[in-house]
Write a structure and sequence with these properties.
Layout (H helix, E strand, L loop, with lengths): L2 E6 L3 H4 L5 H16 L4 E6 L19 H4 L4 E5 L10 H7 L4 E7 L1 H14 L3 E10 L14 H11 L4 E3 L1 H18 L1
Parallel strand pairs: 1-2, 1-4, 2-3, 4-5, 5-6
Pfam families: Isochorismatase (PF00857)
Keywords: Hydrolase
InterPro entries: Isochorismatase-like_dom, Isochorismatase-like_hydrls, Isochorismatase-like_sf
Length: 186
């Protein structure tokens, strides 16, 4: 399959941080689109080294979110913001014949952004679905009260001219309808 969905860091310690029900619902709908078109879904699971982290390997927070975890065709473990650094993700994508990577998940300004840039650097077409990402951080975290983190990251990636950035409606218009047409014609 030439396209793959990456579901980044959808883990208990992040999802339970605040109400991410909208993001989870969007991610699940996109997962179902990929499943319906027989395209692989790869979950990325982050593990922190710090013992007191909610994403430490021995904590419940590091577990994949139960509502979505069974959708995973593959799980790639990582310890840095990039899902490519010291992992087998690049080899897995190449073995699947991947040409295009779709990005969803958490945390927008770290793991999603770093993975998107790393995928582009490896020659993949990258589609970043902005509103199917979320973050535990706020504008206050960065001392920028009114900062919309998702929009800011999406704008930076879009302006780079290297990464396709879409909202859910654009994704559905461009890809979901195309995949449904292909499925009906086969």
């Amino acid at each position: 399959m030439d396209r793959v969905l990456l579901v980044i860091d959808v883990q208990n310690g992040i999802v339970n941080f605040r109400d991410f029900s909208k993001e989870i619902s969007l991610i699940e709908n996109i997962i179902k689109d990929f499943k319906n078109s027989n395209a692989p879904v790869i979950f990325i699971q982050h593990f922190d080294q710090q013992e007191d982290s909610t994403l430490h390997r021995n904590s419940d927070g590091s577990n994949l979110y139960p509502k979505l975890k069974d959708y995973a065709d593959y799980v790639v473990e990582k310890e840095t913001p990039s899902a490519f650094f010291n992992t087998n993700l690049s080899e897995l994508l190449n073995s699947l014949g991947t040409k295009q990577v779709f990005i969803t998940g958490f945390n927008t300004e770290f793991c999603c952004m770093f993975t998107a840039i790393s995928a582009y650097d490896r020659g993949f077409k990258v589609t970043f679905i902005e509103d199917a990402t979320g973050t535990v951080n706020t504008g206050e975290t960065y001392e920028m009260k009114d900062l919309d983190i998702r929009d800011f990251i999406g704008t930076v990636l879009y302006w780079s001219g290297s990464i396709e950035v879409l909202d859910i409606e654009e994704y559905e218009d461009i890809y979901k309808s195309k995949w449904m047409e292909n499925k009906l014609s086969t």
